[in-house]
Design brief:
Length: 218
């Protein structure tokens, strides 16, 4: 069972997210919070597998809550909910410990897929968010794209294969299945990739993979 905490200042949104998640028999919502501070307290008390946080909330916003949760309850993985009007927040959130980014207006199946992916150790970027994150680099920032490709060139062939699957949102177990590796070996590859690329987490590695062009933003 995947235990989930939901944080959003709108009661109707919380009810909708709960209904979507609990339509999956393997997901249980264990706590609802109306702001970032309640989300932190609830996470510390209930220790959910995944915390789904709205970015904009009163008292304490989702970005601040995500950073504190990552620091104090590292076993809880964070998924951020965003809207089309919040592009400025995406880059900030990338370094805040979140492993998933979803649009509130997305297909409900994306929410379930994202929660499942991060609960299993993967990273998940909504396709629409992935396109927006890499759009500036396609549009003209050739230097940053070249830097991403140069960083990828420093990986071994196997590490590039792992990175491509990681960028597509696969968990360690799924990567192992596709590449015929045991999960412990995959973890070793992922750790080496993060060090070689100079990134802090799987999401930053996934974004770099998108920018380098080894994962398509569909």
């Amino acid at each position: 069972m995947i235990r989930v905490l939901i944080a959003d200042d709108e009661a109707m949104m919380r009810a909708g997210v709960r209904a979507i998640l609990e339509s999956d028999s393997e997901i249980e919502v264990v706590f609802e919070a109306a702001n970032g501070r309640e989300a932190i307290d609830g996470t510390q008390r209930h220790r959910p597998d995944v915390a789904v946080l709205d970015i904009r909330m009163p008292v304490l916003d989702g970005l601040s809550a995500a950073a504190e949760i990552a620091a104090t309850v590292p076993g809880t993985r964070v998924v951020m909910l965003t809207t089309f009007g919040e592009d400025d927040y995406i880059e900030r959130a990338l370094g805040g410990g979140a492993l998933g980014f979803l649009l509130k207006a997305a297909d409900p199946r994306e929410l379930i897929a994202g929660v499942r992916a991060v609960s299993e150790g993967g990273a998940y970027l909504s396709p629409d968010i992935a396109r927006r994150v890499i759009a500036p680099y396609r549009a003209g920032d050739r230097t940053r794209t070249a830097e991403a490709r140069e960083a990828i060139d420093g990986l071994t062939e196997r590490e590039r294969e792992v990175l491509a699957l990681l960028g597509a949102g696969a968990s360690n177990a799924e990567i192992g299945t596709q590449l015929h590796l045991v999960e412990g070996t995959v973890k070793g590859y992922v750790s080496a990739i993060l060090v070689k690329l100079g990134v802090r987490n799987r999401v930053e590695a996934a974004v770099l993979a998108y920018r380098a062009g080894i994962v398509a933003a569909e």
